[in-house]
């Protein structure tokens, strides 16, 4: 006997009347027990009522899987009331992951072959909702027959089912090609809309279908022209626009058919112009049709005048009060800016106004489009607008805005001074938001503009005196003051207002940076190096600088402590070399050999390691070797000290080679000889570190004249690490006098074949000579 249970309406009322979730669960559990009991007893008359209640429980999120087999029984029932609930349950409870869904294939096939429209509609709806690939293959022929049925109700549902089948099984496209051509003659808008959708799916998934349907472009143009010219229709018009859904679908299909096809594009040009000029945009429906028209014009091979018209339509969209329409216009213009730059430029003032939109998404799109519109002719005006926006824009846009301004200035800067001023303003306004390479780019820009050194250092000093919170700005200012502090103290710069700066003020400002809690460790490193460089540029006593350096010798930051210890050692032991070591940094050429941003930022940190290897002022030109071997060693960080002796890397690098290395086990090699000047290489591989190679370069002079200002520079590929120790001198006396020696330390962890490039610079017989050559015949023992 079936346990009495609630009716569906009573169940809904009781569930809604539950005051707590626990009461709701109790009601549902009790009713689910009644439903299970009814299913077990096999009551055929009330099975559809029980399943209807179970479907409502399923819609509330409770498990209802035990009703799957009951759905199959109801679908197989000859009663329409049972089939209706059974098909609804199949759509809700079954999917491709359930094996039970395959069991209804025969039932759907039988129902499709019946002449009852309502039953056929139920079967088609279920198939288009949860039909798997296997079901689609089995039932494709049945659906294809229904596409040409007299009943418009069945045809419309059959078309939608065919769309689902094509999406599931694209290889079924050949079955549906013939009926589509006939369905285009339909007057029923629902069937026509489904047919256009089906053709679109076929064209997107099959090149053969795309070629086939290009023949019907004139018919599609005729249908769309009829829609555009038709007056108001109660059945299809929305806000005064005749069936905008069908118009949008046809425009999307025309866009696919006309893409990269001249003949089809020519056929639809006049129609697109008619739609673009006659569509009312006062309502959202008209704007949707017009936007699809613009996208179609831009995707096909349309006439130039038509493309300008499309851009102007988007320009009008920017003035619309609807935020969504303005966002769509900005997004579309951003896509077109590359292909139709001049047409989009006409709307630049409107785009700039959109920067100050309160809506964040609109403002971001306007920023992206504004940056894309910057070129050499408008860079000054656009940069000024963007800088004004940068001062008040939301924090989440500042990074993108600052980076965009810096990139635009780098590409289109009219002068170096304007470029420097632009970067300085960005650093002052939003320094913490700029990219990591902004400091390196600005220091390189200032270093390459010799005529602007005085101007730059004065501007940066004034900015630093006002604000030390912007870390990139502080780093650039500290670098510039350290390099060109002598120009700052001279006070002679015609391009800026007179500024009298005292030595004590400069030192006090750098000490303030060192002591500030806002300064990062890298910033303190810049400031400490700047103080060290000022010790050779200031005319006063350097005792104050010595005291500051000695204080940071016990700093908790290891890198800063190491730098201070090295500088302190330079003061105490090698004071006679300080001026040569702390000379101005050379300019690194941009391009393939350019030091990347991170290496550039740490250039000051490695100053003592890269500069202390020479006693000649011109020895700083060692960095010019960065382009000797296709960018070799230029992109790599300076190699770490290879000698782990307690004396430290600095002291080891400054130890002049007083005695030759141990007797070589590798044959010596003569690599250069000219006018009595000879260069010989001898090799030693220490037994403790087989990856290390010591090369002693020995230069001798047998000519009748002295060789002066002799400098030997070397470069190796990126996979190697190279250190050059200081040479024993820079003069080679005539007639075989005392030779000049220099030690190269090369680390080859990968045991790759060694390539070595040398550059010799010297004066001989009153002439300056420079020789660059590559040594390719090194003994195999040097790397094996």
Automatic annotation (TrEMBL):
Keyword Membrane assigned: yes
SMART domains the UniProt entry points to: Alpha_adaptinC2
Cell compartments where the protein resides: Cytoplasmic vesicle membrane; Endomembrane system; Golgi apparatus
GO biological process: intracellular protein transport; vesicle-mediated transport
Membrane topology, as annotated: Peripheral membrane protein
Region described as Disordered: 592-613, 629-648
Residue ranges annotated for the GAE domain, each copy included: 664-779
GO cellular component: AP-1 adaptor complex
Main location: membrane
Segments of skewed composition (Basic and acidic residues): 597-606
Signal peptide (UniProt feature, chain positions): none
Parts of the chain that traverse the membrane: none
Keywords: Cytoplasmic vesicle, Golgi apparatus, Membrane, Protein transport, Transport
Keyword Cell cycle applies: no
UniProt family annotation: Belongs to the adaptor complexes large subunit family.
Annotated protein name in UniProt: AP-1 complex subunit gamma
């Amino acid at each position: 006997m079936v346990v009495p249970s609630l009716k569906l309406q009573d169940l809904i009322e009781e569930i809604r009347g539950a005051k707590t979730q626990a009461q709701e669960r109790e009601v549902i559990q009790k009713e689910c027990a009644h439903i299970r009991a009814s299913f077990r007893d096999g009551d055929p008359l009330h099975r559809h009522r029980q399943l209807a209640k179970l479907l409502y429980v399923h819609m509330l999120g409770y498990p209802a899987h035990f009703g799957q087999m009951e759905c199959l029984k109801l679908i197989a029932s000859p009663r329409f009331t049972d089939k209706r609930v059974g098909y609804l349950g199949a759509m809700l409870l079954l999917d491709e992951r359930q094996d039970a869904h395959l069991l209804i294939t025969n039932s759907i096939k039988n129902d499709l072959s019946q002449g009852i429209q309502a039953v056929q509609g139920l079967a088609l709806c279920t198939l288009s909702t949860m039909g798997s690939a296997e079901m689609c293959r089995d039932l494709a022929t049945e659906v294809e027959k229904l596409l040409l049925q007299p009943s418009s109700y069945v045809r419309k549902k059959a078309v939608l089912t065919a769309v689902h089948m094509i999406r599931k099984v694209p290889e079924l496209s050949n079955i549906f090609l013939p009926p589509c051509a006939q369905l285009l003659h339909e007057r029923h808008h629902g069937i026509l809309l489904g047919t256009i959708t089906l053709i679109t799916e076929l064209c997107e998934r099959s090149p053969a279908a795309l070629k086939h349907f290009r023949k019907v472009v004139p018919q599609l143009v005729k249908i769309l022209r009829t829609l555009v010219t038709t007056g108001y229709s109660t059945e299809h018009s929305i806000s005064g626009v005749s069936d905008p859904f069908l118009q949008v679908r046809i425009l999307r299909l025309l866009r696919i058919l006309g893409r990269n096809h001249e003949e089809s594009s020519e056929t639809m040009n006049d129609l697109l112009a008619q739609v673009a000029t006659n569509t009312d945009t006062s309502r959202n429906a008209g704007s949707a049709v017009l936007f699809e028209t613009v996208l179609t014009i831009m995707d096909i091979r349309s006439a130039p005048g038509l493309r300008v018209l499309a851009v102007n339509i988007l320009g009008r969209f920017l003035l619309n009060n609807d935020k969504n329409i303005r966002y769509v216009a900005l997004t579309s213009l951003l896509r077109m800016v590359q292909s139709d730059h001049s047409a989009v430029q006409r709307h630049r003032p409107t785009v700039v106004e959109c920067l100050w939109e309160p809506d964040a998404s609109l403002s971001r799109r306007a920023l992206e489009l504004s940056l894309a519109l910057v070129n050499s002719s408008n860079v000054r005006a656009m940069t000024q607008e963007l800088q004004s926006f940068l001062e008040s824009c939301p924090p989440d846009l500042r990074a993108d805005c600052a980076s965009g301004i810096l990139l635009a200035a780098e590409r289109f800067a009219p002068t170096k001074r304007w470029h420097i001023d632009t970067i300085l303003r960005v650093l002052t306004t939003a320094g913490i938001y700029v990219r990591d390479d902004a400091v390196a780019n600005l220091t390189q820009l200032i270093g390459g503009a010799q005529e602007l050194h005085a101007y730059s250092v004065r501007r940066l000093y004034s900015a630093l005196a006002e604000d030390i919170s912007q870390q990139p700005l502080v780093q650039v200012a500290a670098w510039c003051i350290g390099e060109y502090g002598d120009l700052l103290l001279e006070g002679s710069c015609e391009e800026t207002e007179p500024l009298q700066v005292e030595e004590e003020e400069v030192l006090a400002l750098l000490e303030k940076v060192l002591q500030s809690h806002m300064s990062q460790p890298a910033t303190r490193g810049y400031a400490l190096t700047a103080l060290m460089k000022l010790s050779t540029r200031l005319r006063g006593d350097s005792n104050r600088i010595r005291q500051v350096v000695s204080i940071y010798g016990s700093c908790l930051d290891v890198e800063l402590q190491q730098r201070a210890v090295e500088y302190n050692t330079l003061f105490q032991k090698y004071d006679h070399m300080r001026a040569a070591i702390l000379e101005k940094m050379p300019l690194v050429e941009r391009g393939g050999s350019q030091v990347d941003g991170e290496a550039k930022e740490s250039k000051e940190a490695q100053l003592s390691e890269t500069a202390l290897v020479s006693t000649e002022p011109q020895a700083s030109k060692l960095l010019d070797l960065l382009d000797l071997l296709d960018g070799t060693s230029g992109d790599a960080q300076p190699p770490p000290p290879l000698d782990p002796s307690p004396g430290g890397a600095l002291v080891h690098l400054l130890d002049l080679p007083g005695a030759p290395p141990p007797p070589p086990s590798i044959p010596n090699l003569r690599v250069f000889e000219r006018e009595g000047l000879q260069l010989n290489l001898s090799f030693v591989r220490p037994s403790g570190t087989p990856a290390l190679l010591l090369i002693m370069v020995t230069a001798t002079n047998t000519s009748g004249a002295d060789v002066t200002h002799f400098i030997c520079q070397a470069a190796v590929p990126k996979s190697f690490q190279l250190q050059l120790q200081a040479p024993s001198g820079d003069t080679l006396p005539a007639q075989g006098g005392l030779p000049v020696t220099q030690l190269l330390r090369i680390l080859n962890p990968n045991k790759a074949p060694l390539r070595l490039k040398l550059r010799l610079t010297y004066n001989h017989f009153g002439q300056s000579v420079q020789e660059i050559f590559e040594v390719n015949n090194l003994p195999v023992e040097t790397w094996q």
